[in-house]
Specification:
It is built from one helix and four strands. It is of the alpha+beta class and 61 residues long. It has one domain. A four-stranded antiparallel beta sheet has the order 2-1-3-4, covered by helices on one side. β3 and β4 form a beta hairpin. The protein is globular.
């Protein structure tokens, strides 16, 4: 399992969410991250999901 990091920010730069979770693959992590954003109603806020290697899997500004 690999550890991924999801962060969400307000337009002002204030961090609203800083969460880590594990997944087997980048594709699985992308699905989990998308689901978390939708569940928390943060999908339209600035967010990013990074892999352990620093690759951006989800990004919205």
């Amino acid at each position: 399992m690999r550890t991924y990091k999801l962060t969400v920010f307000e337009k002002t730069g204030k961090q609203l969410l800083d969460e880590t979770f594990t997944a087997e693959t980048d594709e699985e992590a992308r699905g989990k991250g998308q689901a978390m954003l939708e569940e928390k109603e943060m999908i339209n806020l600035t967010h990013r999901l990074a892999s352990p290697a620093g690759k951006l899997l989800l990004f919205h500004s």
